[in-house]
Design goal:
Chain lengths: ~500, ~250
């Protein structure tokens, strides 16, 4: 089988000592930063992006992938132990996980989270390997019009899955698109909205914007919430890491269901991991014989969302690797990392750089294995890290971010820009705008504009090309239908219900 | 009784918002003016403060209305960039500010958020107004920015409208201490990294940022800052191989 040959090749690449080391460092550092409360996955990846610049491309991407799921795992550790979800995906884990921790069962909760994530990671890895090649073939049938429509669909998905006002989410995407146009025009080379600032001629660095909007803004916001964040850290010593036989039996079906749900939702563009964990939790609650146990330390409430978000986190690599379209903000950062290393993500990557693609896929599995081996013994250290007071943590994060941004281009102006975007991000938070669609819009902007222009050039200015090409028409119809459904009151209520799950 | 009290509360609130919008409407002009003061001392290039002041004032008071009347009369004279700024950016925001005076804002969070976003979109429209538009059926450099700028104006108007029509949260509280010191630390870092090097800059920025929280203990912060500085000085240049100046330039030479 082709797939197995490819996977085997991937393992050969990923198991080379240097890549193994990259994977280990990535997973460790990712967990380390992800554990810090208030720093989500996106901020972690954005912050750690510069440290991969000096590496060869394969190593860098393996390390970044490691950072990504490390951060995700770190986030669930924080939500179980301290009840501060580091990121949206582990919000639901906090509900039951923290209750379990309070009952002295933090060990089993952490173990189940790790086991669930690992299992989901295994399934998702195989899924990527299986779906990768056929989807690449599909991608070759895509012309500019189809690409444009697909990106519209992705952005609409981001809107549907964003919480809060639909209008605001769309506005954020368009704002992101607008920001992406700063700099030189691809075709004519004209300088757009750069105000003769030489550093803007190349456009706004998306790492700069991400670090500002997610890193600095988060810090500022945490500061004014008062450093006296309610941290009811689980004080008693964590004993008995291993779950009981009953725990394992109870959590097997939720892990399976969560994995399936997460894998499907992850492939869809638009921030699958978040909705996957919410959906998995809701599903378990609906299926449970005694729904009252949820919110009081039900192990299913930890197992299902954790496996769902990990499955989604991994399958979201599929659109990135096959179509070159980042389905969520973290993948958008990955695109940035690839571009920095001179790799253009898309269908060609699979053929031209099999080492990179398959090595990365194999390293995902290895990374997950490492997480389970490393993290369970290290829980004690993570807990100690959580006791570091915020008054010492935030200046360190500021400095670390500043050095990171500076090192991207050795440009002081980038640091100032990130600071400005930090203020913008603070303003966005205050007015209840979500920053994630903004970043997605910003990354998709140049791709979208290019394909729109190309499609119209080929069709000689005929806008109907998007509707007459069947694939494009279908994609647009789906996006329109989705948007319509989101606005309809019945479904809206349902969607709000999913997102308010964490509050009751 | 309760009603009148509520009414007077929104009235005072509205005045503040209106004044804020008016300032927003001339924010780019004010920014350029402050920027231009630097040219007196020989920093940066650009117009002097007097020229900036006169040119914007005439554009706002005389140029833009004249251009408007001219356009109504079918005249197609190319307007200067200052006049365009007044026309595309300032006037619409002033108009919004005036409208605000007669409105009851039911959700200040949405309304103010929408209007500021609209200001950003209008500003982008102005910034891309000098770019080439469609050439036949091919896009010019300015087509896409104008398209998305226009779309954003419409969307943000929609958000502002929701703020007028539906009840929602009011303005949330902005604190100044955290943002100010964190920004100061970032700014200091950006300005000092080249001349002063990583060691001095990282430590100083750490201390500036630490000032942003009222529960900072100085000795503790200084110790942690020093450790962090040493850590960064080893990590970035040596372990990760990122070139960076380490010590102040005047000490090295």
């Amino acid at each position: 089988m082709d797939i197995f040959a490819n996977l085997a090749h991937g393992f050969v690449v990923a198991l080379s000592p240097i890549n193994l080391l990259m994977c280990l460092i990535g997973a460790l550092v990712g967990t380390l930063v992800g554990v810090l409360p208030g720093i989500g996955t996106i901020a972690t990846v954005a912050m750690l992006l510069p440290i991969t610049f000096g590496l060869p491309p394969v190593g860098a991407l393996i390390m970044l992938a490691g950072i990504y799921y490390g951060a995700q795992y770190g986030g669930s550790t924080t939500s179980i132990l301290v009840n501060i979800p580091g990121e949206a995906t582990s919000v639901v884990t906090a509900i039951d996980g923290h209750q379990m921790a309070k009952q002295g069962r933090a060990g089993p909760a952490l173990a189940i989270a790790a086991i669930g994530s690992f299992f989901a990671g295994c399934v998702a890895t195989v899924l990527i390997a299986v779906l990768g090649a056929p989807l690449t073939k599909l991608a070759l049938a895509f012309g500019p019009a189809e690409y444009f429509s697909l990106m519209v669909l992705g952005l609409i998905f981001a809107v549907v899955l964003a919480k809060g006002s639909v209008l605001k989410a769309i506005a954020m995407i368009v704002f992101g698109l607008l920001l992406s146009m700063v700099g030189s025009d691809i075709e004519t080379g004209a300088s757009r909205m750069a105000f003769n600032i030489p550093e803007l001629a190349d456009g706004l660095g998306f790492a700069t914007v991400a670090m500002g909007v997610f890193g600095f803004a988060e810090i500022i916001r945490n500061l004014d919430a008062g450093a006296e964040m309610n941290r009811d850290l689980v004080q008693q010593k964590i004993t008995g890491l291993m779950p009981t036989r009953k725990d394992l039996v109870d959590s097997t079906p939720p892990i399976l269901r969560g994995t399936v749900l997460g894998s499907i939702l992850g492939i869809l563009p638009g921030g699958g991991a978040v909705i996957a964990s919410f959906a998995a939790y809701t599903l378990e609650k609906k299926l449970a014989k005694d729904p009252k146990r949820f919110g009081r330390g039900a192990i299913e409430g930890v197992a299902a969302p954790e496996s769902a978000n990990n499955a989604a986190a991994q399958t979201s690599f599929i659109p990135l690797l096959t179509l070159g379209i980042p389905p969520n903000a973290v993948m958008a950062l990955m695109v940035g990392a690839m571009t920095i290393h001179g790799i253009v993500p898309g269908p060609q990557v699979m053929q031209k750089q099999p080492d990179l693609v398959w090595g990365m896929i194999a390293s995902m599995w290895i990374g997950n294995l490492m997480l389970i081996i490393i993290n369970l013994p290290l829980v004690g250290i993570w807990v100690r890290l959580l006791r570091v007071p915020y008054r010492l943590m935030f200046p360190s994060i500021v400095i670390f971010c500043a050095i990171g941004i500076y090192s991207v281009n050795n440009a002081p102006v980038d640091v100032i820009l990130a600071g400005v975007f930090g203020l913008v991000g603070y303003w966005l938070i205050k007015h209840d705008f979500e920053p994630a669609p903004l970043l997605l819009g910003m990354v998709l902007g140049p791709l979208m504009e290019e394909n729109l222009r190309r499609a119209l050039l080929i069709s000689r200015g005929d806008w109907s090309v998007f509707l007459t090409r069947p694939l494009s028409a279908v994609l647009l119809a789906i996006s329109f239908g989705l948007l319509l459904l989101t606005v309809l009151p019945a479904l809206r209520a349902k969607r709000d219900e999913v997102f308010t799950e964490s509050e009751n | 009784m309760a009603e009148t009290m509520g009414h007077s509360a929104t009235a005072t609130r509205n005045t503040k918002v209106v004044i804020g919008f008016c300032l927003l409407a001339i924010a780019p002009q004010i920014f350029e003016f402050i920027w231009s003061i630097g040219t007196i001392f020989g920093w940066g290039a650009g117009r002097g403060p007097a020229t900036v002041l006169i040119s914007h004032a005439t554009a706002l008071v005389a140029g833009a209305p004249a251009a408007l009347i001219g356009a109504a009369g079918g005249e197609t004279k190319k307007a200067s960039s200052d006049v365009l700024l007044a026309l595309i950016y300032s006037y619409p925001i002033f108009a919004v500010a005036i409208v605000t005076m007669f409105m009851t804002v039911r959700s200040a969070q949405d309304y103010v958020g929408g209007v500021i976003l609209m200001a950003l979109a209008l500003f982008a429209l102005w910034a891309s107004s000098d770019l080439q538009g469609m050439r036949g059926f091919s896009f010019g450099a300015g087509t896409a920015p104008r398209m998305f700028g226009g779309l954003l104006v419409a969307l943000s108007a929609g958000i502002a409208l929701t703020g007028l029509l539906t009840d929602g949260p009011g303005m949330s509280h902005y604190s100044w201490r955290g943002p100010m010191f964190v920004m100061a630390a970032i700014l200091f870092f950006a300005l000092a990294i080249r001349p002063l090097g990583l060691v001095v800059t990282a430590f100083a920025s750490f201390m500036i940022a630490a000032t942003g929280s009222h529960e900072t203990r100085w000795l503790e912060a200084a110790i942690v800052g020093a450790c962090l500085t040493v850590g960064c000085a080893l990590l970035f240049p040596y372990v990760l191989g990122l070139p960076m100046p380490m010590f102040p330039r005047f000490l090295v030479q």
